Amino acid sequence: MTDWELPYPGLVVTTTAAHSGEYGIKMDGRGRMDYTFETVPGETYQVSAWLRIDQVITAPTWGGLRLEVVDIPTWSQLARSDYLNTGSHPFGQTVPLGEWVKVEFSFVAISEQSRWVYSNFSNGDFEASADEFMVKSVPGARERRGLVMAEAGLAEQELAVELGQRKMNLALAVVLGIQFPTRELLTIYLPLVLQRVGDLGRKTK
Ligand SMILES: [Ca+2]
Prior knowledge:
The chain is an alpha+beta fold. It has a single domain, classed as Jelly Rolls, CATH 2.60.120. The chain is built from three helices and twelve strands, in the order ββββββββββββααα. It has helices at 156-163, 167-175, 183-204, and strands spanning 3-5, 11-14, 24-29, 32-38, 44-58, 63-71, 77-80, 84-85, 93-94, 101-108, 113-122, 125-137. The strands form three sheets. It has a five-stranded antiparallel sheet. Strands 2-3-12-5-10 form a five-stranded antiparallel sheet. β6 and β7 form a beta hairpin. α1 (156-163) runs antiparallel to α2 (167-175) and α2 (167-175) packs across α3. The radius of gyration is 16 Å and the shape is globular. It starts with a strand and ends with a helix. The model is unreliable at 141-175 and 177-195 (pLDDT under 50). The structure holds calcium ion. Calcium ion binds at residues 18-21, 23-24, 131, 175.
């Protein structure tokens, strides 16, 4: 199953956090967002997202913003990004304040479910923006079973128009990184996405 989880407060969907389209995800201090997706054991997947540190509220002495992928049954970490921070410290990647940075890495699935987690993994507080979360199989493996997300086949606007009154929800779905490679997958995953986005909307009010 595919499921969004927002186990902690601190993340809201807003236009001021958009890297593309209308919306992005803003972190206010701390926050975490999980996303579980189906994988094929042995397959290699590419994970990417755009992150921007807008303000360092409390400078951390370790860690930073992090995107990681864990295996669901074992909870073992399969891969992670660097710890992004604006300061120089031994365990991270220094990024410029207020500028978008593309975070990208690959991992090999070891079971049929994997999860990525975007979080502030540090002892500091950041105001940060994030957008365009994506997981896709490596080139050549795109057609195989188990792929739940791929490069967007349709732009946010096109999807919104197609779905008429669900425009807002769909835009939020897209900003949350659900990018539909085919109409079939759109049909399968959209109800789940809309449900989760609805939950998100209630939690952030
Ligand atoms: Ca967006």
